[in-house]
From TrEMBL:
Protein name: Fe-S cluster assembly protein SufD
Lineage: Bacteria, Bacillati, Actinomycetota, Actinomycetes, Micrococcales
Family to which the UniProt record says this protein belongs: Belongs to the iron-sulfur cluster assembly SufBD family.
An example Gene Ontology biological process: iron-sulfur cluster assembly
Pfam families assigned to the protein according to its UniProt record, in alphabetical order: SUFBD_core
Annotated ranges, domain SUF system FeS cluster assembly SufBD core: 174-399
Amino acid sequence: MTNTPADQAEKVSGVEVGERRISIPGMTEEGENLAAQTNQAAEHTHGGLGETKKLTSGIGSRANRHVGFDAAGFPEPNGREEEWRFTPLKKLAGVLTDTPGEAEAVDYQVTASDAVVVSSLSQGAAPRNSVLQPADRAAVLATKNVAEALHVKVPADVEVAEPIRVDVTGRGAGRRANSHIVLEAGTHATAVFVLEHRGSADFNGNVEVVVGDGAHVKVISLQRWDDDAVHVGQHDAEVGRDATYKHVAISLGGSVIRLNTNFRYAAEGAEAEMYGLYFADSGQHIEHRTFVDHNAPRNTSNVLYKGALQGESARTVWVGDVLIRKAAEGTDSYEKNQNLVLTDGARADSVPNLEIETGLIDGAGHASSTGRFDENHLFYLMARGIPEKEARQLVVRGFLNEIIQKIGVASIEDSLQDDLENELEIAGF
């Protein structure tokens, strides 16, 4: 990092602060220089995860997390693993068994203009599996047990004005469905993909997104399942040079929802964002995990997830990982999670993680907050003649509306406002 000249420096708590950057003790161009006892570990293997790779440092690093296409490398979890410790595994039994599932457990309907190419991809057919790397047992089983993946492609230089919709409808509670969808946007293409999930099933779905150089892509994933549905999934994207990518996850329905949403970069100059909104009622478990892999220089990322909870057994989980690798100089990254607890007994777990392997970055940070209503906000509204019930509704709507505005599709935004009204009615607001 650039040090401030001595004649311009002042010290705050022993750290030099100048007009340009802060010189942080222990942080160099090679990243954070941790003490030897915290940065090193005895040589070992991750036998319990099916790994044989030997690791000598950074044991907890996301860079060392096991990924692969061999189902044997992902044994059935027992709940003690870091990846599964928040998850109600008994409720996921139907999606963690190695089975092909039922051919007609879900129905797919694609709505797109004539410029969009809709086809299928067999195992080994590019670009299938060129982006998504299974990171848990559910993802590897979905990859293995889907013979033909749905492929939706926007050719290079094509701008699709209307959203491309993929509607997934479950045909019955407990019916197992494995799914693999490949969304592809060619060089300088522009498109909005909408994935909407309704009905009920035990749904295990992978989505991989190929964003070409200079392309502008938005993926909106709506989880509007019935109350008895189970949905686990992994969404991976690779963002090309000078491209923009936005992923928005909205989780409202279902008994258990667990989504891993990840992206990395193919080159420099890209902007990528992840946004999420969730509203959990009593008996629901909604879990979102995000991973931003800054594997190339001079890219930016932003992650913002917001959730509300109501009901004694409502449960939400957000785990956010950002890894800025040594090669990713000039990175600018930020992640934040905020939760609003509306009733007693609801629980929100929020775990932001940030790893930096180089000191030559433009910025990086993370934040997390979980709390009840701000009484000052309520007092302000009620002091202006707004009844308490309406004031509480306004606070919740204002809190979550920041995410809804990121969607950019008026029809979806309007319908989500209606969904929030229903959720607030359940809470008695």
